[in-house]
Write a structure and sequence with these properties.
about 400 residues, alpha/beta, Aspartate Aminotransferase, domain 1, Aspartate Aminotransferase, domain 2, two-stranded parallel ribbon, 14 helices, binds (2S)-2-hydroxybutanedioic acid
């Protein structure tokens, strides 16, 4: 059996994580995987999370099965967080999923069942796992123009032109906020134009909302998902609690569908549950229960929101500090766009030889497309990174 295999490609984000761990140079700068880090380079457990966990430890009475949809109160709270009251609740169904990745996978399986011949469109570039996942599910994957590395901005006119040419056999995967890997986001006006295009063509909107609260705030980051849900009859939404609750390893996500009416919502939900049961039966509960407790308790929710807001503002400050530090050294505005980007990532637009040089000479690690994780920086690392980038690009 196994002699028939050739080696599968490694995921580049996790391969880089292993490479960084194996580098014992002091002062290495890890700008790789999308994990929030404080000034000391640690990824702390949020205090609201700790408190919710203590409550679970004290009061949990059973570890019995919870059911195929997982923690229903969690999913209800997650729908509230993403959509608020933008969509009538009776048209929305949600299932807890193992992380945002699990939610994407469940929804891709669902959309494949719904339209086996559909083409799935992703932004150019996109999160490196979108395409392999969609291809594993059996989709043909194509890209729509998205990012211009020269300007650091969204190529919106070209994006819209491509979207305008799609039809009912197309699914468009959109990043709800904090675009990964570029950090360049759609403005509310651009979202409205995308919605008008989808309305006209009948292409199906599929939103990956993995970073709500990391860009311009919990409410502002949900503009796109709420506007799409409020106008279009059918939408699929994958959300994640990895980043905004810091629950990376607990694998907490939610797969949501918005349907035309109650009957179709119920049928779509039954298909979603069928997919889950035949894949992993039901999702793990611990992380979802933490999130449920936080979102249902006013005091804990306020504490969590304050912690999230502190992380967000620190990332915005890091962006400004890095852009300033590079400008001071280079006397150019070439990297000013970093301050305009939002979320955890920015795509610097550096060529491969520069990325390699930064790694070998400065122990600065970023993805091979020059995506950096802005949350991996602290004040001292920002200055060293600016020195290294300016030297390597001279
Ligand atoms: C990332 O893009 O680095 C994160 O979303 C982690 C992952 O699973 O790829």
């Amino acid at each position: 059996m196994f002699e028939t295999f050739s080696k599968a490609p490694q995921d580049k984000i996790f391969a880089l994580m292993a490479e960084i761990a194996a580098d014992d140079r002091p002062g290495k700068i890890d700008l790789g995987i999308g994990v929030y880090k404080d000034d000391e380079g640690n990824t702390p457990i949020m205090s609201a999370v700790k408190k919710a966990e203590e409550r679970i430890l004290k009061s949990a009475k059973t570890k019995s099965y919870i059911g195929v949809a997982g923690n229903k109160a969690f999913s209800k709270a997650m729908v509230g967080l993403a959509l608020d009251d933008a969509v009538p609740a009776d048209r929305v169904r949600a299932a807890q999923a193992p992380g945002g990745t699990g939610a994407l996978w469940v929804l891709m399986q669902l959309l494949k069942r719904g339209n086996p011949d559909a083409t799935l469109w992703v932004s150019d570039p996109t999160w490196p796992n979108h395409k392999p996942m969609a291809e594993n599910v059996g989709f043909t994957v194509k890209t729509y123009p998205y990012f211009d590395p020269e300007t650091g901005k969204v190529r919106f006119e070209e994006m819209l032109k491509t979207l305008d040419g799609l039809g009912t056999n197309d699914i468009v995967l959109l990043h709800g906020c904090c675009h990964n890997p570029t950090g360049a986001n759609l403005t509310p006006e651009q979202w409205d134009q995308v919605i008008a295009s989808l309305q006209k063509t009948g292409a199906f909107p599929f939103i990956d909302l993995a970073y709500q609260g990391f860009g311009d705030g919990l409410e502002a980051d949900s503009y796109g998902v709420r506007a799409v849900g409020g106008v279009l009859p059918e939408v699929a939404i994958a959300t994640s609690c990895s980043k905004n609750f810091g629950l990376y390893r607990e694998r907490v996500g939610c797969a949501m569908v918005i349907a035309r009416d109650v009957a179709q919502a119920d049928t779509a939900n039954s298909q979603m549950l069928n997919i889950i049961r035949s894949a992993y039966s039901q999702p793990p509960d611990h992380g979802a229960e933490i999130v449920r407790i936080i979102l249902e308790d006013e005091e804990l929710k306020a504490e969590w929101k304050a912690e999230l807001e502190a992380m967000r503002t620190r990332m915005v400050e890091n962006r400004q500090k890095l852009a300033d530090a590079i400008r001071t050294r280079s006397n150019s505005s070439d990297f000013d766009f970093v301050a305009e980007h939002r979320g955890m990532f920015s795509l610097l637009g550096l060529p491969k030889p520069v990325i390699d040089r930064l790694k070998t000479e400065n122990a600065v690690y970023m993805l091979d497309d020059s995506r950096i994780n802005i949350a991996g920086l602290g004040d001292e690392r920002i200055q060293r990174l600016a020195d290294a980038i300016v030297n390597a690009t001279r």
